[in-house]
Design brief:
Helix content: 10-25%
Shape: globular
Strand order of the largest sheet: 15-17-18-23-20-21-22-19-16
Structural class: alpha+beta
Strand content: 25-35%
């Protein structure tokens, strides 16, 4: 066997390799999809992240805690988790515990978690630092205990110096280099996230952050030969335009909290950012003001469904994995959306646009949807929701008591007069197909009747050009 790389050609004797057939789950690393909206594996298959944050576990559980979360998520169709690799005094995976000093115990645990993700087909967003260690007051601030602080034997007089001090810059580069050396081989590493909510570090400076990200990304690209995707996140839901518009930021994320109607607010941010930055976007953290008010998980359900059919690159990812999802066994909420996404096919192969012009016969029902096309193929993905089915209205005791019958019509860029179109309807709890109805096109307006539903229902419509 002869292998050729940048150093030349090498002859290997008495060796073997495993060839993976096309269509296998071993699809390689994750890239930006052809449509600049969704993600795609090297092998061509689309990757649509479905999951939650798993930023730390109960210390007494150790790696068993990650077994608990990741195994359960995978059993319900999820394929994504976000990890924190920072020393924030919670029970996470602290890579560095003093300047230049690495925590080999936690790195062994991270080895285990990465291997676990590989076995389960999960992908991990590796968040390498958080604002906490560089924040000196209000909120969850840890500057007083931070190992960067000179008062604790560190190297910085002030938190904001982290982004300009050459010693701190080199220390962070070394940490990235270490992570790349140890984990970049793994196709379960989805992406590197430089910072969690960097904009609430002390005296945040956008210009300094742009310069820092450019320097770090040059460094990462010089070592990460597999070119994992790169991003960073902000506490402000809008984010920092100067950072998010950088070509070297591969996708954008949103953190958003405390809304009463998740579908009409939180799930809309990716749609806005896709239009603004022309790159994939999804909600990487969200939650309501008091998760105890929604023990049935309506906010999780609605956030995932609304985002999926409105140009998001992944579902909305809840923050309350340990205090809400697990105690209330809300993992079943991932069942329906994961099955529906599989039915949607290869999302990254289609050019998508939002459906904005629809007429619905029942005023209380809202339509969320998108239209996609590739060559002569066309598809529509819809989610219909009774507006009474928000988490806040359920909490207030306002329940949807009657099943809904309705008809609707929508304007499409293209549909063909003549043939009937089949509308496949799906139960959003299970993801199973319920039944189908027929639709007709006239003047690029598609009209049909929905199946009877309570709370919400999803649909797919697909057709080919006939000429």
């Amino acid at each position: 066997m002869r292998l050729t790389d940048s150093s030349g050609t090498h002859q290997l004797h008495n060796t073997s390799f495993q060839a993976v057939k096309e269509g296998s789950d071993m699809q390689g690393y994750i890239r930006i999809g052809k449509n600049n909206i969704h993600f795609q594996f090297d092998g061509g298959k689309s990757y649509f992240p479905i999951g939650e944050n798993v930023c730390w576990v109960n210390y007494n559980r150790g790696t068993y805690g990650y077994d608990d979360y990741l195994n359960t998520l995978a059993q319900h169709g999820a394929n994504y988790a976000r990890l924190w690799l920072t020393d924030v005094q919670w029970d996470g995976l602290a890579v560095e515990i003093a300047v230049g000093k690495y925590n080999l115990g936690d790195l062994w645990r991270l080895d285990y978690v990465v291997s676990l993700a590989e076995r389960l087909g999960m992908r991990l967003l590796m968040c390498t630092e958080s604002f906490n260690l560089l924040r000196s007051k209000t909120g969850p601030h840890l500057w007083e205990q931070s190992y960067y602080n000179k008062q604790n034997g560190g190297i910085l007089d002030h938190p904001q110096d982290f982004f300009t001090d050459q010693h701190a810059i080199q220390d962070y580069k070394n940490r990235l280099r270490y992570l790349i050396a140890r984990y970049s081989y793994s196709t379960s590493v989805f992406a590197w996230e430089y910072f969690n909510e960097v904009d609430i570090t002390d005296n945040y400076n956008s210009g300094a952050q742009v310069s820092w990200i450019k320097e770090m990304t040059d460094w990462v690209h010089s070592y990460d030969i597999y070119r994992h995707l790169i991003s960073t996140s902000f506490a402000n839901s809008v984010g920092d335009t100067n950072v998010q518009s950088l070509d070297i930021i591969d996708f954008t994320m949103t953190h958003h909290y405390s809304e009463t109607d998740i579908a009409m607010t939180t799930a809309m941010f990716p749609l806005k950012k896709v239009s603004q930055y022309h790159k994939p976007s999804y909600v990487a953290e969200f939650g309501i003001s008091n998760e105890g008010d929604d023990k049935e998980g309506w906010s999780l359900h609605n956030g995932m469904w609304a985002a999926t059919v409105q140009l998001a690159a992944g579902t909305c990812m809840t923050w309350w994995w340990d205090s809400w999802v697990a105690p209330n066994n809300l993992y079943t909420k991932f069942d329906g959306i994961s099955r529906f996404v599989k039915e949607m096919g290869s999302l990254a192969d289609y050019q998508w646009e939002l459906l904005t012009n629809a007429t619905i016969s029942v005023a209380t029902v809202r339509l969320f949807g998108m239209y996609g096309h590739k060559q002569m193929e066309h598809t529509v993905a819809l989610w219909l929701q009774d507006s009474c089915s928000t988490w806040s209205r359920h909490h207030a005791g306002v329940t949807c008591t009657s099943k809904i019958n309705l008809s609707l019509s929508m304007s499409l860029p293209k549909c063909v007069i003549g043939p009937e179109y089949t509308v496949q309807w799906y139960n959003t709890t299970t993801g199973q197909q319920m039944s189908h109805t027929e639709a007709k096109c006239k003047g690029n307006v598609l009209s049909f009747t929905a199946v009877q539903f309570l709370y919400d229902v999803a649909a797919l419509i697909g057709w080919h050009d006939t000429y």
